[in-house]
Amino acid sequence: MCGVIGIIGQERAIDRIYPGLLALQHRGQDAAGAVTFERGFHLKKGNGLVLNVFNPKNIERLDGYMGIGHVRYPTVGAGSAEDAQPFIITAPYGISLAHNGNLVNFFDLKKNLIENSLRYLNSNCDAEVILNLLSVELDKMNLKRFTSDTLFAALNKVYRRLIGSYAVVSVIANKGLLAFRDKNGIKPLMMGHDGSSYCFASESVALDLLGYKKMRDVLPGEAIFIDTEKKLYKKKIQRGRKATCIFEYVYFARPDSIIDGIGVYEARLRLGEELGKECSRHGLTPDVVMPIPDTARGAAQMVAEVLGVKHREGLIKNRYIYRTFIMPTQAERIEAVRLKLNPIKTEIQGKDVLLIDDSIVRGNTSREIIALIRSVGARKVYYALYSPPLRFPCVYGIDMQTRGEFIARDKSIDQICESIDADALVYQTADGLVKGVGEGAEGFCTACFTGSYPTQIPGPLLQRIEADRMMAKQ
């Protein structure tokens, strides 16, 4: 899961790309980068947070009225400096590209490009594969007469070769800004317009921050091209079954975002309402309901309302610590729990506490949090999740790509409860998840919970993804 932004307007694009990346920082902490265009590409990227990668000096040299930016959360590959986005290729025209997502057939595509197209790829990032595939197809077109039709025709051939998720922003030198989304719309991508410029971003919060009022989602399978005269061209490149990643609403997206017309905060309130009903069916009678900050706040509020008990903050978060879920090693995650969270003892001592969290992946972080609550005098500690058990690898860009990472893969709920040392454990139901997020609407990818993947996933490819990810984590 990464964050992308693309701008074309009349002023320096980087002056909006940089704050836009800050708004999207929660989507990736591993690397950041931006490229702008004015009589040539100007690139700055590197490992680390946006604030670490950029400074006034390198921002000053990123001239141009159009550009793209990226924050990285590693999926394919080990996440080396060479994998940082955006990427640039010099022909045809000159193209820069960044993307959010994960190509299931990345390895085969890379091998084919090297062997059949005589391309040298310098990274293990699938964005570089998409960029080279687009370059190959554009090379086959009439290069002397670039039009939106030739661009969309080339994209149609690219789409046919890609399996997986992708939300892409791209600058084509002296031509314009391109954005496109996979046919299932697994990864989010929005467009904003303020009268003089256009912006594409992974979440609406970036568009809000930058003052864009007119917004809409890039549709699944849709490509949008804005030329240098600010004329807009759009085309449905490929049709598929809409399957927005439901984990965006559970965990990844900021609560003040709107994705595919659904407010993330409102979705989490509804998820809390559904979870509250489930806690009631399990006969939980806590003295107080507390969220694991920050994602669970809305859900915890609704659980407390449904149960008719107090809702309190019991854990205070140090906001200068990275998100523990996307830290690369388990040792770092466990250490970060104590650094990140500190209990309010007076709200916990002598009480039966119901903790609300978004999900359990490995279980180690949950165990540490429960131990922390017990250490300050809680009488009982219940744990409830507003998502179902995670059991299946995500192949679309969330760092859950091996079966061994899921505590629920080979343990019952009672066994998980014992493993994390909770007095009771309650999960959201699969029906409650979809009902809570979409108010009964369909069109979500729930593969990590249900094992039902919206795209073709050949068995050998899934095994290869798992093996690669395990090697990268060693």
TrEMBL record:
Residues 2-229 form the Glutamine amidotransferase type-2 domain. One of its GO terms (molecular function) is amidophosphoribosyltransferase activity. Keywords: 4Fe-4S, Glutamine amidotransferase, Glycosyltransferase, Iron, Iron-sulfur, Magnesium, Metal-binding, Purine biosynthesis, Transferase. Its EC number is 2.4.2.14. Pfam families: GATase_7, Pribosyltran. It catalyses: 5-phospho-beta-D-ribosylamine + L-glutamate + diphosphate = 5-phospho-alpha-D-ribose 1-diphosphate + L-glutamine + H2O. Pathway: Purine metabolism; IMP biosynthesis via de novo pathway; N(1)-(5-phospho-D-ribosyl)glycinamide from 5-phospho-alpha-D-ribose 1-diphosphate: step 1/2. Binds 1 [4Fe-4S] cluster per subunit. Signal peptide: none annotated. CDD domains: PRTases_typeI (cd06223). The active site is at 2 (nucleophile). The keyword Ligase does not apply. [4Fe-4S] cluster binds at residues 245, 394, 445, 448. SUPFAM superfamilies: N-terminal nucleophile aminohydrolases (Ntn hydrolases), PRTase-like. Mg(2+) binds at residues 295, 357-358. Transmembrane segments: none annotated. It comes from the Bacteria. One of its GO terms (biological process) is 'de novo' IMP biosynthetic process. Its cofactor is [4Fe-4S] cluster; Mg(2+). In the C-terminal section; belongs to the purine/pyrimidine phosphoribosyltransferase family. Catalyzes the formation of phosphoribosylamine from phosphoribosylpyrophosphate (PRPP) and glutamine. This is Amidophosphoribosyltransferase.
